[in-house]
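thought: fold this chain, then report.
action: predict
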Amino acid sequence: MSTLKIPLRPMDVQYVLKDRVYGALKQAITSTDIYAAPEPPRLDERKLAEELGVSRTPVREAISRLEQEGLVQSIPRRGAFVVRKTKREILEMICVWAALEGMAARLATKQATDEELASLRKLFTTFDDANEPGAKIDEYSQTNIEFHQAIMRLSKCELLIQIADGLFIHMRSIRSQTIKERNRASQSIIDHTRIIEALENRNTDLAEQLVREHALNLAEHVKQYADYLDS
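observation:
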């Protein structure tokens, strides 16, 4: 019996390490509420290297790569900081997100299975009524984010999902921040319930409309109350 010979090159362990460090840092930034504090989060090379158990070189290279992607900005004599958008930029991003998520909802009514649509309702099983989110605001904030990500995935349109991912770091952070303001959580769960019903009923036009309006309501809130964002 002959042995199959596959032309392989030795794995560049250093390259794999660089890629893993980059992925870990990008995931950490994506998971952080970058608008929660008055100043943008600072990336400390030494501390990051210690936490990851690596030298500072792959951390520095990962930060440089993130800077090329526009997620990080290096300021001379101050260090590297996660980039935060201005209020105007955030409002533009929400406008684009509204269009993308509205289309995602429209596609979901045609592409998603009944079981996949039902999974949206299961996200909210721990919140029995509109008063529950306020009592469990951190838990609800994460559920809220997962809900909007899920709608994008249920579109089953890979290009749409990829474009939305580019906005997600800032959309996630601004949703995490604003859901805690002016009792928005209670209204959010009401909106989500209506969206889920429209999706489950395969009401394409209504699902798209409700999702788009939900996002544009976020834009209106940011416009009126998000004074912590630079103008």
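thought: worth noting. The chain has two domains: 13-82, 87-225.
final: tokens above.
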